């Protein structure tokens, strides 16, 4: 069959958590697709290198008076450029769609759209995908890009099990049927395949290029990396021979990384940068108040701040305790304390992912119901239950303090332990020795967590596991979405966790800037359309 929307893609079209203090993610040990958790991993090695020969012109159309350079301030800095081996969302954010390109891409609504492949078909049984490539494509070094490069890139990824190779679930084979056609076969249907190919596992690299992947990049995108300084900055220069329709509109884009929020704000206020993403809601106020000069917008994303419950814990195995906690949490209060930008989220699937349904009404804020549930379980404010909340110090202390205060109202004394990430990884993620924990699960399409009884939640629902397996095997988007929605509702009704909010990234920019992406800009940040007029 051929699909034209959703995760099965828009084949007829024409040619990322992110908590600001974190800059890398770890895969689950189960090697299932999209099992990433945000973690802090900062290396302080400076690398300064001229990566490619600089160019001075852009192939895109620029408005009269537009600057030759735009400077963008970001948070999560890459330590090297090795897109095959280096973990962390910082590389995906700046390299995918700008320097490297894949068979397909994702748009600002998280939908699959054409990229190197102009169109594709999926067989009725969901086992064979045929991709039709654009013609006359080249890499930035002038080498021809054709079907053999696609085949080599994906085989190389799978054979060497490079980063994100596990996303190609059920991969069986790939072959070039001619110079512009690729056939990819699966051993069993995988409804997430096309979306997975929008990330690292779908990137096409030049098999003949000779370069240092840690400090250089040879891709097929609208930009070249002309300068890289680890943990500090990346300079992108327009590719003068770019083959595609997304030719860079600004000749030079300088990306500067700011570990300090106040330094980032000062850089935008002084004009040292023209864009800042992300910026905390409170720090953005000064720019909101100056509408004549600045624009401030919040974009949708897939970050889910999950208050995890240990479903096999001594006390949290009792669904009444878990339900009471959900009823006692005032999500509106928590969101308001963060500036009011984040969105309420009542279940495990965010609004930009397949299967999303508004589940905030499953456990609305209701202290009376929460107290009644606690009483059924044998606890009250006079006879409180002590639970331990352990989470990584990258999230600060405010959320823990708020939860302690809110749960005290129903007879729960919350012992909050804010620890180093390595301690959390051992205690919670590995040993599952916890009652409650807090994590920003920022990856898209990560519902698999709730269908895995070995994941750190200890949540085991055969019905959810069956629905998820059927969703993965679906060859129709509507069927897949319905199955995921049913599974997500069960997870929410089982009070397997509480979803504090769907984090929305706030960006601010000078009003002379146009074309800066707002949605999902901490995951992938295409910059070809960005211009700046002083």
Automatic annotation (TrEMBL):
It comes from Bifidobacterium phasiani. Residues 111-444 form the Solute-binding protein family domain. The keyword DNA damage does not apply. The chain crosses the membrane at residues 34-55. This is ABC transporter substrate-binding protein. It comes from the Bacteria. The keyword Transmembrane applies. Keywords: Membrane, Transmembrane, Transmembrane helix.
């Amino acid at each position: 069959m051929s699909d034209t929307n959703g995760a099965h893609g828009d084949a007829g079209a024409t040619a990322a958590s992110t908590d600001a203090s974190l800059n890398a993610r770890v895969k689950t040990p189960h090697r299932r697709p999209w099992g990433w958790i945000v973690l802090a991993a900062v290396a302080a090695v400076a690398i300064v290198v001229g990566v490619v020969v600089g160019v001075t012109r852009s192939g895109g159309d620029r408005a009269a008076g537009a600057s030759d350079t735009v400077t963008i301030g970001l948070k999560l800095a890459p330590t090297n450029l090795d897109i095959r081996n280096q973990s962390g969302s910082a590389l995906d954010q700046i390299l995918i769609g700008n320097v490297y390109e894949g068979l397909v891409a994702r748009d600002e609504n998280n939908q699959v759209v054409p990229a190197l492949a102009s169109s594709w078909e999926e067989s009725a049984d969901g086992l064979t995908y045929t991709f039709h490539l654009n013609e006359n494509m080249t890499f930035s070094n002038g080498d021809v890009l054709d079907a053999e490069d696609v085949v080599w890139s994906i085989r190389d990824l799978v054979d060497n099990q490079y980063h994100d190779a596990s996303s190609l679930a059920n991969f069986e084979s790939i072959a070039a049927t001619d110079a512009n056609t690729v056939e990819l076969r699966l051993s069993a249907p995988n409804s997430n395949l096309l979306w997975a190919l929008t990330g690292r596992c779908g990137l096409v690299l030049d098999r003949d290029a000779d370069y240092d992947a840690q400090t250089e990049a040879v891709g097929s995108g609208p930009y070249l990396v002309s300068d890289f300084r680890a943990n500090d900055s990346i300079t992108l220069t327009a590719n003068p021979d770019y083959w595609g329709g997304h030719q860079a509109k600004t000749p030079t884009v300088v990306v500067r990384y700011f570990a300090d929020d106040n330094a980032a704000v000062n850089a935008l206020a002084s004009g040292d940068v023209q864009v800042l993403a992300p910026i905390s809601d409170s720090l953005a106020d000064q720019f909101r108040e100056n509408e004549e000069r600045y624009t401030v917008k919040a974009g949708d994303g897939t970050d889910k701040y999950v208050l995890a419950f240990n479903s096999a814990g001594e006390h949290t195995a009792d669904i009444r305790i878990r339900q009471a906690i959900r009823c006692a949490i005032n999500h509106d209060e928590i969101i308001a304390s963060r500036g009011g930008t984040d969105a309420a989220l009542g279940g495990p699937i965010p609004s930009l992912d397949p299967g999303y349904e508004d589940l905030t009404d499953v456990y609305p804020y209701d202290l009376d119901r929460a107290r009644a549930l606690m009483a059924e379980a044998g606890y009250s404010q006079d006879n409180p239950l002590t639970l331990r909340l352990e989470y990584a110090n990258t999230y600060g202390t405010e959320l823990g303090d708020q939860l302690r205060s809110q749960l005290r109202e129903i007879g729960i004394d919350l012992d909050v332990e804010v620890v180093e990430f390595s301690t959390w990884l051992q205690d919670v993620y590995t040993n599952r020795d916890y009652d409650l924990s807090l994590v920003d699960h920022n990856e898209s399409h990560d519902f698999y967590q709730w269908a895995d009884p070995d994941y750190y939640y200890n949540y085991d629902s055969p019905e959810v596991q069956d629905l998820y397996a059927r969703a993965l095997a679906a060859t129709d988007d509507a069927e897949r979405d319905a199955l995921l929605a049913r599974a997500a509702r069960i997870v929410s009704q089982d009070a397997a966790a509480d979803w504090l909010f769907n984090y929305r990234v706030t960006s601010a920019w000078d009003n002379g800037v146009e074309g800066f992406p707002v949605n999902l800009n901490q995951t992938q940040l295409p910059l070809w359309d960005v211009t700046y007029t002083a």
